[in-house]
Structure formats: structure tokens, C-alpha cells
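Data deposition worksheet. Section B asks for the primary sequence of the deposited chain exactly as it was used as input, without tags or linkers unless they were present during the calculation. Section C holds the resulting structure in C-alpha cell form. Section D is free text for depositor observations; keep each observation to a single sentence. Incomplete worksheets are returned to the depositor.
Section A, Depositor: J.P.
Section B:
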Amino acid sequence: MMKYVCDACGYVYDPEFGDPDTDIAIGTAFEDIPDDWVCPICGVGKDQFSPME
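Section C:
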């Protein structure tokens, strides 16, 4: 699964770790995260993330 990086602050969402602070389980693909999820560091929405190459 692909990692995504926050364009605003550089936080990397990695499906291997999920986001346990917001109940996003390990192994959850970025596409499967709810649309109202926000970056845990700076608070921007999913639309401000880009796939890492």
C-alpha cells in the first residue's frame, strides 16, 4: 500500500501504522480513511495529501 504525505506539514500517513489516535486501524489504505479525517499534526484535510513516490 502506498504512503501519502501532507503537503502542508510533511506528515506521512503509512498504512503499516495507521493512525491509532483517531482509530484508523493498521493496514487501512489511505483511500479507505473517512473523508472527514484530518492530518494529526496540522489539521488539514485528506485533499491536502499527495502520494509518495
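Section D:
The chain has a mean pLDDT of 97.
The beta strands are 4-6, 12-13, 49-51.
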